[in-house]
Specification:
- The chain is an alpha/beta fold.
- It has two domains: 240 residues, TIM Barrel; 77 residues, Type Iii Antifreeze Protein Isoform Hplc 12, CATH 3.90.1210.
- The chain has 13 helices and eleven strands.
- The strands form two sheets. An eight-stranded parallel sheet has the order 3-2-1-8-7-6-5-4. A three-stranded antiparallel sheet has the order 10-9-11, with no helix packed on it.
- The relative contact order is 0.11.
- The C terminus is likely disordered.
Length: 366
């Protein structure tokens, strides 16, 4: 999907039935190699994603180089446990001088791009690159000045909801709209790495869409693709997943990222899920009509002579469906047939029609 098509999808009315946009988050999985970053973009395009997402910050614009305990990640079992925020972001950030070659590679491959800015300087820089929209990461949802500056550009905003209360989100949405945002997508997100399916709470996706009158989707940190696919049935219009070449290569986000074959399957199955959601419909589809004959219907199961009675021994509900519907079974029992009938004959009203008419007449006379 090229940049124009991506923008059109983001700005379509919230009730427009479009396939979910699939976004590959590159994050720090370039492992500080531009050639690997460019290869990731090529892989993303091969997987069929609609867009790639960058992150625009430096360690110094997002935190301080301080070793005090509050600047150290403390989470047992986490790949980041014990690291200072500054060292983690120094490893994970995408150098700003890489942005242009990465953007150009995405354009060459026909996929869109956008980025998450983490301070005012990042927004100013991204504006020089004609970024089509902005993503507000979950921890920045409380940074109302950052949201205000992004919204003031008039470009679509995508806001992740990880950790945010309804009050937090309401303040963010109000700030964005008052500053000029007219096209908003809210993403359900669980801020854990990896996140668990039981903490994903996907029912929040349609609730956010209704609550804030916007498009909604999923920023997914779970392992695998099941949660993301399930989100499509609940109305996800945009799904974001981290992409890496190989988890075994390591890197700050590799442990919860998809490998290429998984991303390719995600794209395929999310689009299949979207097709399956369809619309509210009853009755046979065009594809089902040829199978109507496989339904049950009433058949004569023994040879009969004119005047014989229809009984459970010679009248049954069986396949195929060329006879009268089974709901007429009791109505036919005890009726005389009007002609000789061979075993395997589909029932029709004319085999008892005269008698049915007489019965109906006698009932009306009574």
């Amino acid at each position: 999907m090229n940049q124009d098509d991506f923008y059109t999808a983001l700005t379509a009315p919230s009730d427009t039935h479009l396939p979910p946009l699939i976004v590959a988050e590159l994050s720090g999985n370039h492992n500080q190699s531009l050639s690997r970053a460019l290869e990731l973009i090529e892989v993303a395009a091969d997987c069929g994603v609609d867009a790639i997402k960058l992150q625009t910050y430096t360690a110094d614009t997002i935190t301080l180089d301080v070793a005090k305990d509050e600047f150290v990640v403390r989470k047992n079992g986490s790949a980041w446990d014990g690291r200072t925020l500054h060292s983690l972001y120094a490893e994970a950030h995408t150098p700003w001088e890489w942005h242009l070659p990465m953007i150009e590679r995405a354009r060459e491959l026909g996929i869109a791009w956008f980025s998450s800015p983490f301070d005012f300087t990042a927004i100013d820089f991204l504006e020089t690159l004609q970024v089509p929209c902005y993503k507000i990461a979950s921890p920045e949802v409380v940074d109302l000045p950052l949201i205000r500056k992004c919204a003031a550009t008039g470009k679509p905003l995508i806001i992740s909801s990880g950790m945010a209360s309804i009050t937090d989100l309401a303040e963010a949405v109000t700030t964005a709209r008052e500053a000029g945002c007219k096209n908003l997508t809210m993403l359900k997100c669980t801020t854990d790495y990896p996140a668990s399916p039981e903490n994903s709470n996907l029912r929040t996706i349609p609730h956010m869409a209704q609550l804030f009158s916007c498009r909604s989707g999923l920023s997914d940190h779970t392992l695998g693709i099941g949660v993301a696919i399930a989100s499509v049935a609940l109305g996800s219009t945009l799904i974001e997943k981290h992409l890496t070449m190989r988890r075994a290569d390591g890197g700050p986000d590799s442990h919860f990222s998809l490998e290429p074959r998984e991303m390719q399957l995600l794209v395929k199955e999310c689009r299949a899920a979207w097709q399956a959601v369809g619309s509210v419909r009853y009755g046979p589809t065009d594809a089902e009509k040829s199978y109507l004959a496989a339904r049950r219907s009433l058949y004569v199961t023994k040879d009969m002579r004119a005047g014989d009675l229809l009984t459970p021994e010679n009248l049954r509900s069986i396949r195929p469906g060329f006879g009268l519907p089974p709901k007429n079974y009791e109505m036919l029992l005890g009726r005389h047939v009007t002609r000789d009938i061979k075993r395997g004959t589909a029932t029709s009203w004319d085999i008892v029609m005269g008698e049915c008419c007489q019965v109906g007449a006698s009932h009306s006379d009574g």
